[in-house]
């Protein structure tokens, strides 16, 4: 398993090896042992699958507050996405900074988004399936969100707001200036 650091501490790209032959390929996409050997979290309790029909669909930016904060291991099973993580850990030297990584069925990579980060993605193709492992169960009462096109964050999604397909909830998300982070510098409770 290849692990690449990003500019945000704890947010890493994980790429498992693929073993190919004339039939296609085989890849072990998750192993608790491999994650632990790489000193990465492996305590995932819930798997989610989202399907987006059209290119330009944006989901995010979301997180769950403690005590139900979620680390996520995000992988694109079909099509491709630009996956984004934003550091919202109070006191972090990279607070408000973001990383974007292209994940696709072709590259097989995953992005590990630790607790203390907002997460979102934009679909780069039609017909996209995104699979993600979560370290805590869904708890709607702890959901928090920031608008995807917030100027204080300044994410380059590759499309304008009027081209994006959003849920009503994501379209009504608040600003980064209004966001009060519940996370301390280590991603735990503040």
Automatic annotation (TrEMBL):
The active site is at residues 62, 132. GO terms for biological process: dTDP-rhamnose biosynthetic process; polysaccharide biosynthetic process. InterPro entries: RmlC-like (IPR000888), RmlC-like_jellyroll (IPR014710), RmlC_Cupin_sf (IPR011051). Pathway: Carbohydrate biosynthesis; dTDP-L-rhamnose biosynthesis. It comes from the Bacteria. It holds the Pfam family dTDP_sugar_isom. The record marks 138 as: Participates in a stacking interaction with the thymidine ring of dTDP-4-oxo-6-deoxyglucose. GO terms for molecular function: dTDP-4-dehydrorhamnose 3,5-epimerase activity. It is an enzyme of class 5 (isomerase). SUPFAM superfamilies: RmlC-like cupins. Keywords: Isomerase. Homodimer. NCBIfam families: rmlC. Belongs to the dTDP-4-dehydrorhamnose 3,5-epimerase family. Catalyzes the epimerization of the C3' and C5'positions of dTDP-6-deoxy-D-xylo-4-hexulose, forming dTDP-6-deoxy-L-lyxo-4-hexulose. This is dTDP-4-dehydrorhamnose 3,5-epimerase.
